[in-house]
Design brief:
It is a single chain. This protein is an alpha/beta fold. The protein folds into 3 domains: about 150 residues, Alpha-D-Glucose-1,6-Bisphosphate, Chain A, domain 3 (3-Layer(aba) Sandwich), CATH 3.40.120.10; about 200 residues, Alpha-D-Glucose-1,6-Bisphosphate, Chain A, domain 3; about 100 residues, TATA-Binding Protein (2-Layer Sandwich). It contains 14 helices and 20 strands. The strands form 4 sheets. Strands 1-5-4-2-3-6 form a 6-stranded mixed sheet, with helices on both faces. A 5-stranded mixed sheet has the order 8-7-9-10-11, sandwiched between helices. A 5-stranded antiparallel sheet has the order 17-18-19-16-20, with helices on one face. α1 packs parallel to α2, α8 packs parallel to α9 and α13 crosses α14. The radius of gyration is 22 Å and the shape is globular.
């Protein structure tokens, strides 16, 4: 019996052999083929470096062809290559076998509709789940599989390279982290006229070099290398290659909202361009929006929501703190390799070093808090937080969680869509105000959790703090 727990906010994901296997993959393929319309529909399929991915991909393809679909097999590729294939060739949908940045024993499926719109919850995934549990599949058979590996890779590389113009040779450090960009990204970047030094640059689903999630902690080697040698910048990719985490020439990790601000400052020349950003991004972005005459579009956190806004609003850029960077030039998608090329273009056209650009951004003090809260109550806690904030006389923004803007700063508290966590961002112009706001948020979240649990309001709730300087 298929487990309901594998259906998440943005994808299907679980531990291979425990939560999902080839049988589940075939059912997902059948359901996706049915959802897209069955016979005659064209569907791109790729897979990542995980040990279980080839077998899961084969089973997924078997399910798709049983519905009559024409499958474009594009092989082992970064996730954005699947997005590109769907959008560029006008396919009806697609799928990538991947668990993104999760540990090696995990795997899963990101499923797409037309224009590479991700089938997240409320955007098609709930219907795919319903098809699986009701067993109402189209099983016409007669589907075909086309080998499109070489054709797609060639066209994709040519397409993105034609959209960048690196003005001078830069020296950059690339860390694919043994993921899907290994032995792939460095070749494309080198063709743009850049000197590339690559580490952890061989595909290995065990991820022996570092975590498939690029974090400040997992990038210690990269930061040290950049600090000790003459690199213009570094970039690290997550397991499936849709996130690009940049490190400046001083060895400092640049958060996604700051990188988005730099791209806006450099590339937007006239007013009126639209930019999509998510609810927990720093206020420094709002300052840059005003400075450049940008029309801001606030979105919920997550690829599904931001891509929909990118396409519907014809936005130039989009971004998340987690270093997903979206570009109109690549059909609105978040593409880590393309992001690398655009940052290289930006640096090559500037008289400043990347670190100097970062230092010129508006300055705020920010703290991020991650509370451990069970999945079954985390959204109820957010509802309780909303009531508490309103009870204090504030009018919160409730697009995704609870965001409160104050004269002294702002904060947002939202439930993670993928983990048993509640995440908070607190920001202020000075450290004293930040400390006061942070204390208030911790007290309110603690009270809300205990009220939902029916416990004493002063029972502590486990949390960890990530300070951003």
């Amino acid at each position: 019996m298929i487990k309901e727990s594998i259906f998440r906010a943005y994808d299907i994901r679980g531990v291979y052999g425990l939560d999902l296997d080839e049988n589940v993959a075939e059912l997902v393929g059948k359901a996706l083929g049915t959802f897209l319309g069955g016979a005659g529909k064209r569907v791109a399929v790729g897979y990542d470096v995980r040990k279980s991915s080839p077998a899961l991909k084969k089973a997924l393809v078997d399910g798709l062809t049983s519905s009559g679909a024409e499958v474009w097999d594009i092989g082992l590729v970064p996730t954005p290559t699947v997005y590109f294939t769907i959008s560029h060739f006008g396919l009806d949908g697609g799928a990538i076998v991947s668990a993104s940045h999760n540990p090696p024993q995990w795997n899963g499926f990101k499923l797409c509709r037309e224009k590479a719109m991700l089938c997240g919850w409320g955007m098609g995934l709930e219907k795919i789940k319903e098809i699986i549990f009701s067993k109402k599949y189209f099983e016409s058979g007669g589907g075909t599989v086309l080998d499109k590996v070489d054709e797609v890779n060639s066209i994709y590389q040519r397409f993105i390279l034609e959209k960048v113009n690196v003005r001078r040779r830069l020296r950059i450090l690339v860390d694919p982290g043994n993921g899907s960009c290994s032995k792939y990204a460095d070749k494309i970047i080198g063709k743009a006229g850049l000197e590339v030094v690559a580490i952890n640059n061989y595909p290995d689903g065990n991820f022996p070099s570092r975590s498939p999630e690029p974090t400040d902690e997992s990038l210690k080697t990269m930061k040290k290398m950049i600090s000790e040698d003459n690199f213009d910048f570094g970039v690290a990719y997550d397991g499936d290659g849709d996130r690009a985490v940049f490190v400046d020439d001083k060895g400092r990790v640049i958060e996604g909202d700051k990188m988005l601000a730099l791209l806006i400052r450099h590339f937007i020349k006239g007013s009126g361009e639209k930019v999509v950003y998510e609810v927990s991004c720093s206020k420094l972005l709002e300052d840059v929006f005003v400075e450049k005459g940008v029309t801001p579009i606030m979105s919920k956190v997550g690829h599904s929501f931001i891509l929909e806004k990118m396409i519907s609003e014809k936005a130039l850029f989009g971004g998340e703190i987690a270093s997903h960077l979206y570009f109109r030039d690549v059909y609105g998608a978040d593409d880590a390799i393309y992001a690398t090329l655009k940052v290289a273009e930006m640096v090559s056209e500037s008289s400043e070093r990347l670190s100097e650009m970062v230092d010129r951004l508006p300055k705020y003090y920010t703290t991020r808090l991650v509370f451990t809260v069970p999945d079954e109550i985390k959204f109820k806690v957010i509802e309780r937080m909303n009531l508490k904030v309103k009870g204090k006389g504030f009018t919160p923004i409730t697009l995704d969680g609870v965001r409160v803007n104050l004269e002294s700063g702002w904060y947002i508290v939202r439930a993670s869509n993928t983990l048993p966590q509640i995440k908070a961002t607190v920001e202020a112009k000075d450290k004293e105000k930040l400390s006061i706001l942070e204390k208030d948020v911790i007290e309110m979240v603690t009270e809300a959790v205990n009220e939902v649990r029916g416990l004493s309001a002063n029972m502590p709730v486990e949390f960890r703090r990530v300070s951003i300087t």
